[in-house]
From TrEMBL:
Keywords: ATP-binding, Nucleotide-binding, Transport
Protein name: Amino acid ABC transporter ATP-binding protein
SUPFAM superfamilies: P-loop containing nucleoside triphosphate hydrolases
Family per record: Belongs to the ABC transporter superfamily.
Classification via InterPro entries: AAA+_ATPase (IPR003593), ABC_ATPase_HisP-typ (IPR030679), ABC_transporter-like_ATP-bd (IPR003439), ABC_transporter-like_CS (IPR017871), MetN_ABC_transporter-like (IPR050086), P-loop_NTPase (IPR027417)
Keyword Translocase: no
Length: 256
């Protein structure tokens, strides 16, 4: 796939939970190295869309493509399991609530997947853990357990764990929303560093300042549709849609 063509492509994504339609015919293209932010109220479908990208929330209809390969192929069960595991190794995902294994140190949390899924030796995995934990400013706490870490430190370990698989794409689902305000910036700084390295990222966030400073494009979602999208300097300063203006007005007023 050439650099100019879409690296991530979502085609007519639709997702229903029973009678509730959460995603309504969403199409989206993301270029390699691009950083896309997704904003919107709770229940707008942001996280569902993000989770659909690596088929954690399988779509009811539509297609997800990554680097020219369809992620959500219709395959017999065994073939699907092999295919989706291979695809998920290319996508790093950081959740709101860390999802670290509490009985494992930071080192062990980071080395587990490379050893298990890529057959990496303990020595190579240890060197990889040191490299990735150093990248997120956590090398000094490499042998700490999650219970010994702050929320911000846990999230940085979670980012290092995702990066250890050398993903082509990083997904962040409200990565700072569970953190105390004073811990948010340390995680945002790590994400900004990844942005400077041109890592392809899709970021669901409630932090408008962060989205404005890091993202190439921002999408505003409401009730399962993309209402408006554009460069942050346009979307935040001069939105064209009344729903976008209302959301931003309420959000900015609430942040004061």
């Amino acid at each position: 796939m050439s650099e100019q063509t879409s690296f991530v492509e979502i085609r007519h994504a639709q997702k229903s939970f029973g009678a509730l339609e959460v995603l309504k015919d969403i199409s989206l293209k993301v270029s390699r190295g691009q950083i896309v932010g997704i904003i919107g109220s709770s229940g707008s479908g942001k996280s569902t869309l993000l989770r659909a990208i690596n088929d954690l929330d399988p779509l009811t209809g539509g297609e997800i493509w990554l680097d020219g390969v369809q992620v959500n192929k219709k395959l017999p069960h065994r073939q699907y399991e092999k295919h989706i595991n291979e695809m998920r190794q290319q996508v790093g995902m950081v959740f709101q609530h860390f999802n670290l294994f509490p009985h494992m140190t930071a080192r062990e949390n980071v080395t587990m997947a490379p050893k298990l899924l890529k057959g990496m030796s303990q020595g190579d995995a240890d060197r990889l853990a040191e490299e990735q934990l150093d990248k997120v400013g956590m090398l000094e706490r490499i042998d700490y357990y999650p219970s010994q870490l702050s929320g911000g430190q846990k999230q940085r370990v979670a980012i290092a764990r995702a990066l250890a698989m050398k993903p082509k794409l990083m997904l962040f689902d409200e990565a700072t929303s569970a953190l105390d305000p004073e811990l948010v910036e340390e995680v945002n700084l790590v994400m900004k560093k990844l942005a400077e390295e041109h890592m392809t990222m899709i970021i669901v966030t409630h932090e408008m300042d962060f989205a404005a400073s890091v993202c190439d494009r921002v999408l505003f979602m409401d009730k399962g549709v993309v209402v408006e999208e554009g460069p942050p300097e346009v979307l935040f300063k001069n939105p064209t849609q009344p729903r976008t203006r209302e959301f931003l007005r309420k959000h900015l007023e609430g942040a004061k």
